[in-house]
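Sequence only, no structure available. Ideas?
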Amino acid sequence: MSINVLSYIVVMAGVTYLIRMLPFTLIRKEITNVYIKSFLYYVPFVTLSVMTFPAILNDTAGIWSGVAGFAVALILAFFGKSLIWVSISACVAVFITELIMY
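Reply:
I predicted one. Tokens follow.
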């Protein structure tokens, strides 16, 4: 392995370690600000949504089948259906849309 690749790995490991270690060392007391607590509460949900939504639209044969599956999943989730029914219904919607359109 060349020295360049090894130095890249060491720098990347150091940056990753610092990003994870700094909040533990800099923030010693409990966060009491309501806005910051609210922001930190929603960060995992927003991150998951931002990573998942483009895949929903791009991983089908066309964008319209992805939109159809997403719409079905959104409606069923809004009405409180279980995760398995939401997933199966979205897959069926994508399948039917792709049969009709493509």
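The CA atoms of residues 11 and 17 lie 10 Å apart.
Hope that gets you unstuck.
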